[in-house]
Amino acid sequence: MLELDRLERRFGDRVALQGVSVRVEPGRTLAVLGANGAGKTTLLRVLATLLRPHGGQVRVLGAELPREAWKVHGRVGFLGHEPLLYRELTGRENLRYQASLHRLADGRVDEVLAAVAMERRADEPVRDLSRGMVQRLAVARAVLHDPPLLLLDEPRASLDPAAAELLEPLIGRASERTRVLVTHDVEGGLAEADLALGLKRGHQVFAERVDAAQARELYR
Amino acid sequence: MAYARGLKPLAAATAVTMTAALALVFFYAPLDADQGFVQKIFYVHVPMAIVALCGWVAAGVMAIRHLRTGDRSWDVRSYVAIHLSVILGVGVLATGSIWARASWGHWWVWDEPVLVSFLVVFLLYCVYYPLRFSIEDPDRQARYSSVFAIAAGAFVPLNFVAVRLAESFTHPRVLSQTGGDLPGEMRLTFLVSLLAMTLLFVTLWKLELTSKHAEARLKRLRRRLEAREPAAVA
Amino acid sequence: MIRAARAILRKDLRLELRTKESVPAMTLFTVVVFVLFHFGLDRNSLDGSLASGVLWVTLLLAAIIGVTRLFAAEREQGGIDALLLAPVDRTALFLAKAAALFLFLVAVEIVALPAFALLLLGPDLLEALPELLAIVLLADLGLAAVGALVSALAVETRARELIVPLLLLPLLVPVLIGAAHATEPLLRGSQRPEDLGRWLGLLSLYDVVFVLLSVAVFDFLLED
Fold first, then answer.
1. Is residue B66 part of a domain?
2. For a FRET experiment, which of B45, B75, B143, B195 has its CA 20 to 30 Å from that of B109?
3. A110 Cβ partners below 8 Å, 6+ apart?
4. Please, what is the average pLDDT of chain C?
5. Distance, CA of C104 to CA of C197 (rounded, Å)
């Protein structure tokens, strides 16, 4: 599903990622840990084909990046820091727009709105909604097209426990999708992951099962 | 990339041709009846304009190569070509202005479509710098610069056509006069001057590319050193 | 791809209707500039080349506002990422944005032309209307294509508000030349258009070149 071999990515002269190698089997969860600025978000964006790799080899869903990046489009669910929703449009309008980009039937929008329990407020502009609701809509947007691969950047950030539980079947282990999960919650992240990748200033520190103590070393 | 290859003979050829051109301009070309000595600026002004315009269009072609192959060295070549043409452009406008003043009494004339369209093109290419240098990521900087170079390169002929159409109500001026019916001595001097200007441009272009290439290699070596021994790079 | 372009266009039109950010500003700007010209030129009515020039220069300057704001929503709310992740041809984005800009310009002109006729124009506008419409539509097409391209070029630069006008205006000189020269005889009152074909030809050539060029080159502006 995911194969990284000495991935390298720079921003000008600054090395953001170097020597990142890991392999994730279908249906497995990879937790990406590291301090702020370690390169976690960059890694996620490379996997999403939003950034192109500068060195090494990257294969996502069987497609080699950046050459075959187009094969990945539409098969990845991306949940970044930004909800990627237009604030002046309603939740429903945002999702309908997404659905038309992905060539999905309209019914799918209602389905997903129900799944995130946002039917009642789907017709209000996004700017009027609380952060938790916006996050729920963002999750809806990310799974609208039923992608086999999920790239999640702190998915539970603005959610209360009830909402987080609600979204479990969509983006949690129960969803049975391959997941790459960036999180600061060391224990929680390790608990739901099969693999953990540790990044320190762009360099890979470990890529295997580790315990919480080892993981916390990253934050020194 | 052996940019420096051929640089010495090229520079020599440039020097020779430029000397020849200067000699011809001062001693061989006839003195113009009504404009006098100042008319000789024409031998600098027009070749400069032609070379600058060709430089810009060539930069557009190089930019196309960059986008097609992803090879950033083509973008550097494109950048240097634009850069040199802009410098020549300043010369064109300056000499054009002097010539206009000497010939027609005004520092600027709108009657000469080539000069006017050149001004518009020059202003456009001046924006290349702020555009290019406001983008920090080098990959993106190269790509966006190339897109600009292509659009601007396509614009050059279009603009010339447009301005020519607009000004064609006034009688055509020196350039179209000189287009076909330059007397023998003037034509020879003009062609040699054009050749000299072209050689000068190509030499300077190669020179700047060589220097940039050396800079880039130095940077890469430093980076590699830094990766191995962070302390060694003082 | 057309389907995707339509979806993006619909989204942009809906956003504009709701936020009303571009079109009202552009329209107001043109009317204000007409008033400025009244004071600046100290004239109550214009005709011929002066009228034509004032009209077209004003429209071009107003276009700057639209061009600067064209990718604003994407830039501020990360909309481009969502588009890049979808199985959509990047060219669809260009077509949608150019179409949106075209429609915005037409909307502005629906108000600006009558305003111009009321405030500054001497001769009667209605007589010249059919030819004027042809000129306006062709000019708008070129404006839209180049505007979308320039907007995308400037989208990531820090000095966006400065770069857009500096980039856009020289590129639009041929459009200005074609449109102004074509419109001039129309605004001279009771004179039939001369050389209209020549100027429409220039505008069409410009449109073709820049639409094709922008479509070809747009992909390179979105990847990273």
1. yes
2. B195
3. A119
4. 87
5. 26
**Residue contact C85–A49, C-beta within 8 A:** yes
User: Which of the four pLDDT bands, split at 50, 70 and 90, describes residue C191?
Assistant: low
Report yes or no on B65 lying in a domain: yes
CATH architecture, domain defined by A2-75+148-219? 3-Layer(aba) Sandwich (3.40)
Burial of B19 (0-12, 13-18, 19+ CB in 10 A): exposed
Chain centroid to Cα A67, Å, comes to 22
Q: Is residue B234 part of a domain?
A: no
Q: Do C153 and B131 touch (CB under 8 A)?
A: yes
Say yes or no for a CB contact (<8 Å) between B131 and C181.
no
Structure-token pair, residue C104: 């915005």
Q: Write out pLDDT tens, residues A76-90.
A: 999 988 888 888 889
Q: Name the residue in chain C with its Cα closest to that of A53.
A: C224
Question: According to the per-residue pLDDT averaged within each range, which of A5-19, B215-229, C24-38 is highest?
Answer: C24-38
What predicted TM-score, i.e. pTM, was given to this entire model? 0.87
Task: Give B59-110 pLDDT, tens digit per residue.
Answer: 999 999 999 988 888 999 999 999 999 999 999 999 888 888 877 777 777 7
Question: Which residues contact residue A142 at a Cβ distance below 8 angstroms, ignoring those fewer than 6 apart?
Answer: A77, A78, A79, A150, A152, A171
Kindly report the length of chain C: 224
Is-contact C116 C55, C-beta < 8 A?
Answer: yes
Which H or E run contains A46? helix A40-47
Q: In this predicted structure, which of A152-161, B33-42, C136-145, C146-155 has the lowest mean pLDDT?
A: B33-42
Range among A109-113, A160-164, C18-22, C121-125 rated most confident: A109-113
For the beta carbon of residue B197, count every other beta carbon within 10 angstroms: 25
The reported pLDDT for the residue numbered B33 is 62
In Å, how far is B222's CA from the nearest CA of chain A?
11
Pair C4, C92: CB distance under 8 Å: yes
Instruction: Domain ranges for chain A, please list them.
Output: 2-75+148-219, 87-146
Question: ipTM value of the model?
Answer: 0.88
**In sequence order, which ranges of chain C are alpha helices (DSSP H)?**
2-19, 23-41, 48-69, 72-77, 79-85, 90-119, 129-153, 160-171, 173-186, 196-222
Of the pLDDT bands very low, low, confident and very high (cuts 50, 70, 90), residue B170 is very low
Closest CA–CA distance from residue A136 to any residue of chain C (Å): 16
Tell me which H or E stretch contains A77: strand A76-79
Residue B3 CB contacts under 8 Å (≥ 6 apart), including other chains = B206, B209, B210, B213
Kindly state whether residue B1 falls inside one of the protein's structural domains: no
What tokens appear for C106 in the block? 């037409």
Strands A149-153 and A76-79: parallel
Q: Count other Cβ atoms within 10 Å, centred on residue B23.
A: 12
Distance separating alpha carbons of residues A212 and B120, to the nearest angstrom: 65
* Residue of C6, C81, C85 best to disrupt the A interface, most CBs of A under 10 A: C85
> Which ranges of chain B does DSSP label H, i.e. alpha helix?
7-23, 42-69, 72-104, 113-126, 128-133, 138-167, 174-180, 184-228
Range of the domain at B198: 7-228
CB contact under 8 A, B162 and C174: yes
Residue C95: name the closest of C182, C219, C190, C191 by CA: C219
- Counting the structural domains of chain B, the total is 1
Q: Is the pLDDT of residue C104 over 90?
A: yes
